[in-house]
## 1
Amino acid sequence: HGGRIWAEEAPGGGTRLVFELPEAPPAPDGAAGARMPAEGSPGGEAGGEGEEGARILVVDDERYVRRYLDYELGRAGYRVRLSPDGMDALRRAREDPPDLIILDMFLPVLSGRDVLLLLASDPRTSAIPVLVISVAPREESLGLPGVALALQKPVDGARLLEAVAEILEKARARKPAR
């Protein structure tokens, strides 16, 4: 969440644990306090037409992970859709192909690996780049079809946005000019 934690040697012996948390942006009504967007808006949408405006489908079975990614990506101006499982993700990707899919490998109903294979076999979704964010070692995902980059959880916001920008830039460079 953009904070830091570290240990320091305390004067006179021992160890002191120190942490920093970023200041949360004010809620829209001006009230102070941390705010993360709630899920449940139509289609699970969040974010606006900010700097990138790219459409990203976030697929993770952990609600708090979805909310965190939605928050970080939305703040950066990406249009985010949320999906709790592989079957729902496939349906959403086929109906309205996103510019990028962020995918967990451990999902209910249909695994991340199966989602990747099905995306790659469908002409409507085969060109969509995928950023894997999972507890699985990165190496397990990198050779799978469609995987542009793999990161291991937990991922901080800066690294997330860096990876997303890198993948979208490469995808843009591959698209033929209209």
## 2
Amino acid sequence: LYQLAVSAGATEGVAPGIGPAGAELVYLRLGTRSPTIRSQDVDGASVSMEQISLAVRLIGDETFRATVGDPCSYCDFHRVCPAQEAGASILTEEKP
């Protein structure tokens, strides 16, 4: 996301005309002499943009099917959830 921000001009005020040049995450760990480094090339910004575009499309579609799963055991909304018998009548006439 940092590379995406740079490519969108977020650093123009401090580094005019400079675009993204790759990125590295450095994980420092106690008890080890060398950090773990994860590198990302310049294409990382386009990958981030693709992921954000997909998220925007999914949210824009406004199609979120409620499905029963492990989180249902601790969810506070089961009484209004259309995937649960108690909440099925909230949005539809049918029971799951």
## 3
Amino acid sequence: MRWPDPALTRIFSTMSSPSRARHWYRRTAIGVVMLAVLFALGPRTSASEPDVAAVGRLVPDDVAALSEWLAGHERTAGATDTFTAARIRFFDDTVRTRYAVLHMHGFTGTRQESAPLADSVAARLGANLFDARLAGHGMTPDSMRTAGATTWMTDAVRALAAASQLGDSVVIVGASTGGTLASWLAAHPLLTRSPIAAVVLISPNFGVAGPIPTVLRLPWTRVIVPRFMPRFVLDDQPAPNSDFERMAYSWTPVSSLFHMIALVDHVSGMPLDHYRARTLLIQNRSDPVVDVSQVEAWMARLRGRGVQTHDMWVTVADGENPHVLASGRTAASQLVPVTTRIEAFVRVQ
């Protein structure tokens, strides 16, 4: 029999010798192992925690100076749109109140996405309000290229330090990835001395729904994927008005997804030995954005540590957003019930 390809003839003649065949198999196996090791050791995106003590020291301890300090910080960051910039809203005068509400928005959103929920909660509690803005948000989608898990954790620490000056006790209201950061603040061993009275988690992100996170956790994907898909489309429907265009991005650089997933993985895996804050979950079981089973697992972990937890399962009306709950723009039917539930939860100690 004559092989049509001389190369195949050489391969099979080599394998016909037992010693040569073993040598060939050995070299092939070594090559496969080396490739597997190279793949496994490929770059991944991880979350590094900031120096929380150093960040906190940068916040003035004079309540009257906080507004000017925050405005200067936002100007330096390039967040010139007052519609989405971080802000402080005093309940009455520039004095401390019994409660201070710290509101943190979600990934690619802004404080306007769930407005006026935080304002309503603060008004009912007679509380000062700190509306945070996470780095890269509230400007342009390209701004997300310079943001990441560490900068978002830094923003959360800074916001908590400011809120601690605004009120004797802090109520953290975190939506989606803002809920991830709220949980990180409440669990951090160096931050548990902060006066956190309660944590409210609205559609918190402890795992994104669907297969995308699994793929993006693989080695080398942070190098390969952005080359072929630099943008990730979040909403392919045209915005109904200019306010919607300003309050949440319709797309984000795909590189920012790696940082969001790294943040979620970091918080989801952290120990809860120091978590003490009473926690209220507000969630829709049909949420298409976050993995609800991961949310339930997080709450079960809190209960296992003896944390006092409460749940409010929400069903939105037809046409309303099943993830951005209790928003005047996207889920107005839940605004009053959710506000009432949060007020009752905070007041009953």
## 4
Amino acid sequence: MPRSRVETQQLTATTPTAEPNDFTIDGYQLIAPIANGGSGRVYLAAAPDGERIAIKLLDPTYANDPAITSSFLAEYAIASSAKHPGLLDIRAAARTSCTNLPYLVMELLDGETLQMLIDRVDLPLGAIVAIASQVADAVAALHAAGYVHCDIKPSNIYVLYDTVAGTPRVKVIDFGVARHVDAPIDVEMISGTPTCMAPEQWRSAPQPKSDVYALGCMLYELVTGEPLFSGTLPQLAIAHCEAMPPRPSARCPGVDPRLERLIVRALAKDPSMRPTMSDMAAELGRIVPIVDIDVAIETLAMEALVEASA
């Protein structure tokens, strides 16, 4: 089995550790850590003009790893190539003047990851479908720019609470394992999260429709309350490549037949049998009007404020 690289984004309270230049990086004041990723830590920061932003700093452990360093800095190029309001805005990539450690300057998001959200509340079906539709629309722009995200999952979807009317309520984040469709295949490296990797991704050959499969996995779990497959790494590899999963209605009676058909198509073993990400966005939008997400998320935002003030 080739080695596997799994990227995760977990928003947790963390204890600050000493950083280069005493928490100041090239004029950016680091205020507090707000997230841990697979290869770095994200900080709440203040730009020289006082604007609140986010700084993602590479873990010093990987400073001398050219592959990880290159992938880390490539996140800026990917985000710049696929501009879309539903994709995380990465404004700059640089290296610290004192230690040469790579960092990214990013927009600061107000909300929480979809994983955090579903861990504490049961989302109504309308919100699930509307969120998935916005995710699909954003990732379709990534595909149009020639990139595959390779790690679509609830912890890489950020649900926004404070937005302008008519703008996306979700952001797709973490391009740490994204790759260009023409990038050479490395048969020794599998990148992604095992619970939602398409058969071809297990073979080190991800393509845009691998993200469609991952979105299908995410929808399956959100609708049924159970992951598509579970088990050890070898068991997951075999299941995703060979096993036929139970239909969503077998685990969640009464699921909308249109949604079930779309999920089943997205989970096809053969990529050519899956819809495109643009088709996914359109189909999901027809199942549940996208405006329904606004009401659902405004309610969730109020619940979050009440919990925070309790």
